């Protein structure tokens, strides 16, 4: 599958378009579904750092250290 098509599907998902359940099940396991899913859930990479559900954009390393109980000296 070409990157242009996958990028278009990613952006379609990123803009908030929801696929019906039957379409998601039909596409399950394909590159198209993965592109839509990552876009729909807001996953992206910037400067080598991956952002998404577990690491929201704007989340700093200092915040992570505080949450884990590590103190920066």
Q: Short summary of the structure?
A:
The chain is mostly helical. 49% of the residues lie in helices and 8% in strands.
Secondary-structure topology with pairs:
Blueprint: H1 3-14, H2 21-27, H3 31-40, E1 44-46, E2 49-51, H4 61-67
Antiparallel strand pairs: 1-2
Short descriptors:
73 residues, mainly alpha, two-stranded antiparallel sheet, 2 strands, 49% helix
Characterization of this structure:
The chain is 49% helix and 8% strand. By secondary structure, the chain is mainly alpha-helical. It has one domain (3-67). Strands 1-2 form a two-stranded antiparallel sheet. A hairpin with a 2-residue loop joins strand 1 and strand 2 (49-51). Helix 1 packs parallel to helix 3 (31-40). The longest helix is centred in the first third of the chain and has 12 residues, at 3-14. The termini are far apart. The mean pLDDT is 80.
